[in-house]
Write a structure and sequence with these properties.
35% helix, alpha+beta, three-stranded antiparallel beta sheet
Length: 80
């Protein structure tokens, strides 16, 4: 089984790319696993505290990431 990891540090920023220190950052790990010619993708996101997680959840983060993964799935079907 072939496996690859990608680690991303995510920060909120303003339009100029300046990090917003008042917003929680996150550490995102994407794990790509080759499974008989198909790829399984596992996404893990960690926050520094439950309060930080609750803050982004209250902002609609779950809806946003769900829409992102759905758009990716649609795009992959188009190019398949």
């Amino acid at each position: 089984m072939n496996q690859r990891l990608l680690l991303i540090l995510f920060f909120f920023s303003d339009a100029d790319g300046n990090i917003d220190e008042t917003m929680p950052s996150s550490e995102i790990t994407l794990e790509f696993i080759d499974m008989d010619g198909k790829t399984r993708l596992i996404n893990r996101t960690e926050y520094e505290s439950a309060e930080a997680l609750n803050k982004v959840m209250d902002m609609g983060m779950l809806q946003g990431i769900t829409e992102t993964w759905n758009r990716l799935e649609e795009r992959l079907k188009e190019v398949k």
